[in-house]
Amino acid sequence: MRGRSMDQAVSRTEYRNAMARVCAPVNVVTTNGPSGRCGFTATAMCSVTDQPPTLLVCMNSRSLQTEVFLANGSFCVNVLTREHVKLATLFAGSEQEMAARYAAAEWLDLPSGNQALKDAIVSFDCRLAHMHRVGTHNIFIGEIVNIRGRKDGQALLYFDRNFVHVPTQEGSFGG
Fold first, then answer.
1. How confident is the model at residue 175 (pLDDT cuts 50, 70, 90)?
2. Residues with Cβ < 8 Å from 64, sequence gap 6 or more?
3. Domain residue extents for the chain
């Protein structure tokens, strides 16, 4: 297979098909505050730095939830387990009503006002530090103010446009 020169554009379809081959963790990102409660499913989440502990998550800029996240100024990234496939689908948009999305799981109230999924592998409670728009998406940069997690569970992943999971050994969370 020959490579392309730097001045040849990659098509949207070609890019999306290639990215479908990249394995990603499945997360439900939530916010709760004066502007309301909402949430969405995201696979575009990763660590930025540990000084200070910071992560990023991406949301489609056309989402009506953007303004709620910005106004609340905080969010919680909940890393899902293989038992959360239905929840991931609901928060991805198969259910439009936020109350119904939240009714499908148990949540814990965090000191920030956000809600964490009770049985998430790990939940990162974040203060929204920055937002950048790149192309079709907003990149939320969150400084982590609290972490809660568990030592067991099989991570839910997204690969080749399907939910998959890998078994895990007992973790070392908190150590």
1. very low
2. none
3. 25-158
DSSP state of 81: B
For 174, residues 6+ apart whose C-beta sits below 8 A from its C-beta are 149, 151
Q: Above 60 in pLDDT, residue 37?
A: yes
Q: Strand order of the sheet with strand 24-25?
A: 24-25, 156-159, 162-165
| Location of structure tokens 């001045």 | 7
More confident residue, 66 or 164: 66
Return the DSSP state at 148. Answer: E
| Model pLDDT for residues 146-172, shown as the tens digit of each residue | 999 998 888 898 878 888 887 666 555
Q: Which fold has domain 25-158?
A: Pnp Oxidase; Chain A (2.30.110)
R_g of the chain, CA atoms, integer Å:
17
- Per the listing, tokens 């963790």 go with 25
